[in-house]
Design brief:
- α8 links the parallel β14 and β15.
- α6 packs across α7, α7 packs across α21 and α13 packs antiparallel against α19.
- This protein has 26 helices and 17 strands.
- The protein is an alpha+beta fold.
- The protein folds into three domains: 216 residues, 4-Layer Sandwich (Glutamine Phosphoribosylpyrophosphate, subunit 1, domain 1); 206 residues, HUPs (Rossmann fold, 3-Layer(aba) Sandwich); 62 residues, no CATH class.
Length: 609
C-alpha cells in the first residue's frame, strides 16, 4: 500500500514540485520515496512495504527493456499467477514489477487480468504517454487535476492542493447540494472544479494534450438476465468465493490481523482468515465507555470462540473528540461520516501490532443488510404510495422518531428515490429541504444520481437501492473512510468481501436469499453460522458509530456556535441564514433527529474556514 502522485507541466517539472506533492501523502508510505522526471512528465511515490520488503521493490520501477516506469498504490493478489505467463525472469518478488511487465507484454488491456485494489500510473518513455488505472470497485483512490494544459494526479486531494501557489483551484458549488444530501461528494466530482475523482473500473491515457478514458468493468454490465435461486448451490458458491478471496488477501510479508467489530461481516472475514492462518490471528476492536450501544463484548466473544489474539481498546469521549478536527484534515473535502472517528481509532491501535488488516466492508451493500432496503420495497407499494403525503403529514406532528420517518414519505416524482431513501435514513437533507436551504438555488437537481442504466433484467426496489449503494455510498463514503482512516496511520486495509468475483455473484443472487423471512444478509449468515454459533449474533444491529447527537448537545455544542452563527453563515455564502437558524433552534428544542443535518452544515462551514 502506498501513495502516488504525478504531474504533466508543458513548461517542465522540477523534482522539488514532486517532493512537495509526495510529502503531503507521506503517511501513506513512510518507508521510502522515489521520483522520475522526463520532458514535462513527473512521477512520485511513497512506499509502505508489504510485499517484497527489499529496496529492489522501491518505486518508481522500470521495465526490463527500460521503456516503462510505474508508480502504484494497492495490491494485486494474483500477481504470482500472472508472473508465470510472462516470458522473462523477474528481478523482484513484488506485484509492482509483475504489473509493469504485464503492461509491457499486453498493453493497457492487462488491467482485465488484475485481481485486487489499485491505482496505477505507467509512463511510456518512448511515446511519452501516461497511462492511469483504477480498480473495479473503487477501493483505492485517484484524483485528477486538469487546467491550462496541466494534468496532475494523486492518491489524495492534498497531493494536488500542495501546489496551490502555482495551480488554480476554484470552489465547485455544484458539489455542495450533493454533500448536504448524501454526506459525501460522489464520483466524479470533488469540491474543486479543476479536480475529479478518476472513475473506478476505468483506465486512461494522456499524451500531453488530452486524457482519453475507457471503461473496462461496469457493475451494470455484470447483471445477468437470470438469478441464482437454489440455496444449497448458492451457499456453496459463496463460501468457495469467500474462502478464496480471504486466502489471496492474506498474502503478506508483514504482520497482519483483522478489524473485528463483532458484527456479521467482520466476524465472517475473521473466521475465514483464522482458518487459513497457520498462527493465531490478531484481531482488533474498540468500544466506547458509557456508550448506549457498545458492541466490543460481542467482538470479544467471537474472538474467544475463534481463538484469536484479541486486542480491545475502550475509547473515552475525549479520545474521540480529539479526532473531530482530524476529519477535516484527513479527508480534504467536506465528508460527514462520523464513523471515521472510531475507524481512525481502531486503525491507530492496530498499527501498533500489524501493518496490514482485513476489513468486513461490503457485506451490507451486497447482501442487503440495511433498513433502507425494507423502505425501498415499502415505498413501492401502490397503496402506500397513494397515501404517502397524508401519512407523512400526520407523522410530522408526532414524536421525534415519527418526525424522522415522516421525511421518508415526503418526496416528489422528480426525486431519485434511492438517493432520497438514503439521505433520510442518514438523517440528512432531502431535495425539497435543499431548495429552501441552498443559497441562490431555485431547484436543486442531482444529475449524477439520475443516470438511467440499461440492465439485462428489471431490478426490484430493494435491488435498485442496493445498486445505488454499490455505485455511490460504498465507494465514495465507506471505502473512502477506510482508506483515509487506515492510511492516516500507515496501515493497509484489505476488503475480501469486495473481490470483484464476489460482487458479480451478489449482483445475480436471488433477492430472496439476501432477505429471507425477515432475516437480512440471510445467505451470508448461513455461511457464518457454520463457523460461529448463531446465538452470538441474536441482537439488534447498531453499526460502528459514535453518540454524535449527544455530543452536539454537550461537548461539541461549541461547534454549532462557532460554525453556524449568522456572521459565519452569511460570510461563507453557501446556505440561507434563516433556514440554518430555524434548524438549530428546532434541534436544540428537542428534535434530535436533526443532528446529522447540523453535523454536515458544521463540516461544510469548517472546511471553508
Amino acid at each position: 500500500m502506498c501513495g502516488i502522485a504525478g504531474i504533466y507541466e508543458p513548461k517542465g517539472v522540477a523534482e522539488d514540485v514532486l517532493k512537495r506533492m509526495s510529502d503531503k501523502i507521506a503517511h501513506r508510505g513512510p518507508d521510502s520515496d522515489g521520483f522520475f522526471v522526463q520532458n514535462g512528465f513527473g512521477l512520485a511515490h511513497r512506499r509502505l512495504s508489504i510485499i517484497d520488503l527489499s529496496t529492489a521493490a522501491n518505486q518508481p520501477i522500470f521495465s526490463q527493456d527500460n521503456r516503462y516506469a510505474i508508480v502504484y498504490n494497492g495490491e494485486v493478489y494474483n500477481h504470482k499467477e500472472i508472473a508465470k505467463e510472462l516470458p522473462i525472469q523477474l528481478k523482484t518478488h513484488s506485484d509492482t514489477e509483475v504489473i509493469l511487465e504485464a503492461f509491457a507484454q499486453w498493453g493497457p488491456k492487462m488491467v482485465n487480468r488484475l485481481n485486487g485494489m489499485f491505482a496505477i500510473a505507467i509512463f511510456d518513455k518512448l511515446e511519452e504517454k501516461l497511462y492511469l488505472f483504477r480498480d473495479r470497485v473503487g477501493i483505492k483512490p485517484l484524483f485528477i487535476y486538469q487546467k491550462n494544459g496541466v494534468m496532475a494526479f494523486g492518491s489524495e486531494l492534498k497531493a494536488l492542493t500542495a501546489l496551490k501557489d502555482q495551480l488554480e483551484f476554484t470552489l465547485n458549488r455544484d458539489a455542495i447540494p450533493y454533500f448536504l444530501h448524501l454526506g459525501y461528494i460522489p464520483q466524479p466530482i470533488t469540491i474543486y472544479n479543476e479536480i475529479e475523482k478518476f472513475p473506478s473500473g476505468h483506465w486512461a491515457v494522456f499524451d500531453g494534450i488530452a486524457l482519453k478514458t475507457e471503461c473496462y468493468w461496469n457493475p451494470a454490465d455484470k447483471i445477468s438476465a437470470t438469478v441464482l435461486s437454489d440455496e444449497t448451490e448458492a451457499k456453496n458458491q459463496l463460501e468457495k468465493l469467500l474462502k478464496a478471496s480471504v486466502k489471496k488477501r492474506l498474502m503478506s510479508d508483514v504482520p497482519f490481523g483483522t478489524f473485528l467489530s463483532g458484527g456479521v461481516d467482520s466476524s465472517l472475514v475473521t473466521a475465514l482468515a483464522q482458518e487459513e492462518s497457520a498462527e493465531r490471528l490478531k484481531t482488533f476492536s474498540i468500544g466506547f465507555e458509557n456508550a448506549k450501544h457498545d458492541e466490543s463484548k460481542y467482538a470479544r466473544q467471537v474472538a474467544e470462540h475463534l481463538g484469536t489474539e484479541h486486542f480491545e481498546y475502550k475509547v473515552t469521549e475525549k479520545d474521540a473528540l480529539d479526532l473531530v478536527e482530524d476529519i477535516l484534515l484527513q479527508y480534504d473535502e467536506p465528508y460527514a461520516d462520523s464513523s471515521a472517528i472510531p475507524t481512525m481509532l481502531v486503525s491507530k491501535m492496530a498499527r501498533q501490532e500489524v501493518t496490514m488488516t482485513l476489513s468486513g466492508d461490503g457485506g451490507d451493500e451486497l447482501f442487503m443488510g440495511y433498513g433502507a432496503y425494507t423502505w425501498a420495497n415499502r415505498l413501492s407499494s401502490p397503496l402506500l404510495n397513494t397515501f404517502r403525503k397524508p401519512i407523512g403529514t400526520a407523522l410530522s406532528f408526532g414524536n421525534d422518531r415519527q418526525r424522522r420517518a415522516a421525511n421518508l414519505f415526503q418526496y416528489s416524482s422528480s426525486d431519485n428515490l434511492p438517493a432520497h431513501i438514503f439521505s433520510q435514513e442518514q438523517y440528512l437533507f432531502s431535495r425539497s429541504e435543499l431548495d429552501r436551504l441552498v443559497l441562490n438555488s431555485n431547484e436543486v437537481q442531482f444529475p449524477l444520481l439520475n443516470q438511467a442504466k440499461k440492465l439485462n433484467r428489471a431490478l426490484s426496489p430493494a435491488e435498485r437501492q442496493a445498486f445505488f449503494d454499490l455505485e455511490f455510498y460504498l465507494k465514495d463514503d465507506l471505502l473512502t473512510k477506510v482508506d483515509r482512516a487506515s492510511m492516516r496511520y500507515s496501515l493497509e486495509a484489505r476488503v475480501p468481501l469486495l473481490d470483484h468475483e464476489t460482487v458479480e455473484f451478489a449482483l445475480n443472487l436471488d433477492e430472496n436469499l439476501k432477505i429471507k423471512n425477515g432475516t437480512q444478509k440471510y445467505l451470508l449468515k448461513q455461511v457464518l453460522y457454520d463457523k460461529i454459533p448463531k446465538e452470538v449474533f441474536n441482537r439488534p444491529k447498531w453499526g460502528f458509530s459514535i453518540p454524535l447527537s449527544k455530543w452536539l448537545n454537550s461537548d461539541l455544542s461549541y461547534l454549532i456556535d462557532e460554525s453556524l452563527n449568522k456572521k459565519k453563515v452569511e460570510e461563507t455564502g453557501f446556505v440561507q441564514w434563516n433556514a440554518v437558524e430555524k434548524l438549530v433552534n428546532s434541534y436544540r428544542s428537542g428534535q434530535e433527529h436533526l443532528y446529522n443535518r447540523i453535523w454536515v452544515l458544521i463540516l461544510l462551514h469548517s472546511w471553508k474556514a
